[in-house]
From TrEMBL:
GO terms for cellular component: plasma membrane. The chain crosses the membrane at residues 9-30, 42-61, 82-105, 117-138, 150-169, 175-193, 209-234, 246-274, 294-311, 331-353, 360-383, 389-410, 422-438, 444-461. This is Oligosaccharide flippase family protein. Keywords: Cell membrane, Membrane, Transmembrane, Transmembrane helix. It is a multi-pass membrane protein. Pfam families: Polysacc_synt_3. It is found in: Cell membrane. It comes from Candidatus Iainarchaeum sp. It comes from the Archaea. PANTHER family: O-ANTIGEN TRANSPORTER-RELATED, PST FAMILY PREDICTED COLANIC ACID TRANSPORTER. Its main location: membrane.
Amino acid sequence: MNEKIERGTFFLVSANGFSMVANYLIYIILGKFLLGAEQLGVYAVVISLVSVIEMVLVKAVQQSVSKFVSERPGSVQDVKLVALKLLVPLNIAMFAVYFAGSNLIASAFADLSLAPYIQVASFLFLLHPVFSVFMGCLNGLRRFVTQAKLRAFYALLKLALVSGLAYSLSGLYGAIGGFVLASFFGMAVGFFLTRGKGAEPSQLSYKRFFAFLVPIIAMSILTDLLVSIDLFAVKALTGQGSSTLAGYYIAASTIARVFPLVISAIAFIVFPLVSATTFRKDIEKTRFYIRNTLRYTLLAVLPFALLFASTPKELVTIVYSLDYLPAASPLASLSIAFAAYTFFIILTTIIAASDRPKTASLIAFVALAVSAVLNFVLVPVLLIEGAALSTLVASFAGLILSAGFVLLRFKALVPLKSFSKILAASLLVYAISLGWPLEGLLLIGKYLILLAVYAAALLLMKELSKKDLNIALNVVR
């Protein structure tokens, strides 16, 4: 890798982490200072109803735009125009349906008072997909640091506007309106950052763009459902007390979900790199990107996953309280499951970037089917532990299938020697952690010491080298 990619990876991962923290702060500020519990619940429902834009359509649009810009960077303006001409009519139609159907949607929740808030939130349909076009342009141009700064700017702006307008307008209209305004300003800045660069024609047809976009949307839906269906199963299949069990389960899942939320930003880096090299049929460069991406992800994710798995009770009580102690039972399995899911997301991103989005979607479908069957069988018997086990097995099923395809097509994964050393060092700290119980704030100190042990073990085994140190220095210079 080069310094530009290394710094881009660092900034994008950091921006993802910052965005996650900002979202948590929004709920904390609204819930503790600005809205009552009932109003906070309304805000959460209304925003969740439109979050499908960000989870599915926005991610799919960004990757599709990035794909075609990365192939011919000089054609960025042409690709942007094709995407906008295709999306703007769709956005307007979605907005109109959602706005006009607000009463119908509200009645599904047996609460017609939701309708005006749904109408305000519907403006996000006009803004978010367009914002994602500009993000995709920056990604395809490999302007990763700029992309990260725009993402962080949007997260900070959303935090400020949601909180500020909720305070100044005294309630929900301000909070939801702040969300919409943040998207508008983010879109405006994205337009400014991508204007006037690259006037070369792309020869991209609407048909080709749409043919790539549809399976990417399908893949996004399937991969998101893979880590959501377990919660639905807990609510639907555990009988009396299902809401309480669902609360414990989402508490554990929220902790473990930190891996894909933060680390999967690496997928934004590898997507345009693999897309460009496969388009040029540069197989050696593609293999280089795959090996390095997976190795550095393994270095970052595996020790944390095993540390979390070794301290589920301590981690739950420090993040929540003793009242949430039952959440510890699924946390160990979910920590490993979400680590596997992170690799699954990166591998399916590589597959899609190599112009095989249908294959990536099929693998995601198989993994989801495995999860659905296992949840149906295990949750009624093992309750939340059954849901966690189902997600664990399904995530590994998706990981194995996607890794197998990448290996067969590109003859590249994490080098076996590196994998063995990283696994050995991670298992070492896992074993030490099990035999060294600490609680409260001491847990943080324990993690830091064990991570130092992990790094020392890798140095002794010569898995970490001067080159890795130089990369670490590059990203923070």
